[in-house]
Amino acid sequence: MKSWIKALMAAGLMLGGGARAGEAPDWRFELTPYLWLAALEGDAAIGGRHVDFNRSASDLLDNLEIGGSLLGVAQYKRAVFGGQLDLFNLRTDAMKVDGHSLEGELDSDLGIFQLVAGWQFDGWMEGQAFTVAAGVRHLRWANELAGAGGGTERRTFNLTDPVVIVWPTLPLLKKKIDGLALNPVFALGGGGDSELIFEMFPQIRYRVNDRLQVRFGYRTIGVRVEKDSGRRNEVDIRLAGFLFGLGGTF
Fold first, then answer.
1. Is the pTM for the entire model greater than 0.85?
2. Contact by Cβ (8 Å): 214, 206
3. pLDDT score for 98
4. Residue 91 has pLDDT above 50, yes or no
5. Distance (Å, rounded) from C-alpha 221 to C-alpha 114?
6. How confident is the model at residue 96 (pLDDT cuts 50, 70, 90)?
7. Domain boundaries of the chain, sorted by first residue
8. Which residues on neighbouring strands pair with residue 28, listed in sequence order?
9. How far apart are alpha carbons 183 and 60 in whole angstroms?
10. CA 198, 69, 173: angle at the middle one, nearest 5?
11. Considering the chain, what percentage of its residues have pLDDT values greater than 90?
């Protein structure tokens, strides 16, 4: 965990150095690494067994081996192109298998990759902007279910779906704090490998200077994959928690 924090701070300081005032160029870029302290809950079919699992964010800190995100945005005038990568290794022993409590552990490797393109529109007040984008999101979720008796079952899900995203930028306390804005993310998709995918990410963005910015918020991602009528969901998970980002624009 400490290595993630050090890497996050180093990346932000490198991107933040050498800020200079000047006219806004046609091309603008943002690169922001995030630390995401998330909790995983939901249920899934693994090896023919139905697994319900839950872990609080406080317990997760002791079991989060890898957890972080990287956001990249390129903007040419009003055209916006974005990509985001999320990588996690999550473990939980708070689960039920086929409706019964089980002494064991679920080890999950979760990766989410997203690419989108869209357009930025002006708001009704100075400094406001609304970006609407569409693209594709791929989720890879590899699971290993180990029971107390020594048996192990494995299942990997690869889910690719179209997604639509809205990014509002709403200045806050503009007369008192320059560079402070509410910059939430709302995403909805599905119809590919998933029945439904969604994201809600209210966040505060603070521009320290022309090159360095800080982001803080609470992010929730959900995925649902249904089986045939009358059977349980194959996947129904939610990943949620606080997220901190330190990055730069250039």
1. no
2. yes
3. 65
4. yes
5. 13
6. low
7. 2-19+27-249
8. 75
9. 27
10. 75
11. 49
Neighbours of 229 (CB within 10 A): 5
Q: Find the mean pLDDT for residues 40-49.
A: 74
Was domain 2-19+27-249 assigned CATH 2.40.128.90?
Answer: yes
Q: What is the mean pLDDT of the chain?
A: 82
**Closest by CA position to 238, among listed 35, 44, 39:** 39
Give tens-digit pLDDT for 13-39: 554 444 444 556 789 999 999 998 887
Residue 129's pLDDT is what? Answer: 96
pLDDT score recorded for residue 6: 55
Give the 3-state DSSP-derived string for the chain, with helices as H, strands as E and coil as C. Answer: CHHHHHHHHHHHHHHHCCCCCCCCCCEEEEEEEEEEEEEEEEEEEECCEEEEEECCHHHHCCCCCEEEEEEEEEEECCEEEEEEEEEEEEEECCEEECCEECCEEEEEEEEEEEEEEEEEEECCCCCCEEEEEEEEEEEEEEEEEEECCCCEEEEEEEEEEEEEEEEEEEECCCCCCCCEEECCEEEEECCCCCCEEEEEECEEEEECCCCEEEEEEEEEEEEEECCCCCCCCCEEEEEEEEEEEEEEEC
Given a contact cutoff of 8 angstroms between Cβ atoms, the answer to whether 60 and 38 are in contact is yes
